[in-house]
Amino acid sequence: MRSHFDEQLSLLHQELTTMGGLCEEAIALVAKALCNDDKELARKIFPLDQKIDQRERDIEALCLKLLLQQQPVARDLRQISAALKMITDMERIGDQAEDIAEIIFSLDGHTGPVHAQIYEMARDTSKMVTDSVVAYVKKDLELANAVIAYDDRVDECFLQIKNQLVALIAQDPAEGEHAPDLLMIAKYFERIGDHATNIAEWVHFSISGQHVDTAH
């Protein structure tokens, strides 16, 4: 009985890793589409988001099956309940990548002076998603805590972009035409960082049994 349960848990880890990989792909794809003003690439986000949504449903079904059929206790129960929370945040990451893709169609390549910082946010948030899923699978509390701490870097980058765009509008309103869209893109990446932090917090709970509240 336990061996079958362990096999199902292993499958859960594989499914979560796959879903995390899809989220990483969505972030990388939308960042590349943004920086290269590649609308065809941006369109690929939409079916990718649908794959993420389907993966959420599949993992949810697997978790419910484990809860109903195996009646896990203690640490096993924490792993499954944490997974249910994690996939909600992953699904929202896919949604926000899709939101960024929609904005790309109206930007026409006008990323202004914040081009590098936005790409940096994309890179950092992708790393956070990757590390949080790895931390879950490997039960690595130190890595989960590192992801939580890393969110400060993403938040700081967002503030820098915000200040630059406000200054741009003040100096030259014509040049600042696309500033609201760029600010919204940066905000979506900041939210992706928050969701990755949420994932890491649930990883922390699955390992330690203790909740972490960073109030982000």
Question: Can you describe this structure?
Answer:
The structure is a single chain. The protein is elongated. It has seven helices and no strands. The protein has 216 residues and is mainly α.
Structural class category: mainly alpha
Helicity, in percent? over 70%
Name the beta content range: under 5%
Please report the number of helical segments: 7
Give the termini distance in whole angstroms. Answer: 41 Å
Q: State the shape.
A: elongated
E-strand count: 0
The overall pLDDT average reads: 89
Low-confidence stretches: none
SSE string, helices as H and strands as E: HHHHHHH
The Rg value, from CA coordinates, equals 19 Å
- Largest beta-sheet details: none
Q: Which properties best describe this structure?
A:
single chain; mainly alpha; 7 helices
Task: Describe the protein's topology.
Layout lengths: L1 H35 L2 H5 L1 H26 L3 H34 L7 H24 L2 H31 L7 H30 L8
Helix pairs in contact: 1-3, 1-4, 1-5, 3-4, 4-7, 5-6, 5-7, 6-7
Brief sketch in words of this structure:
The chain has 216 residues and is mainly alpha-helical.
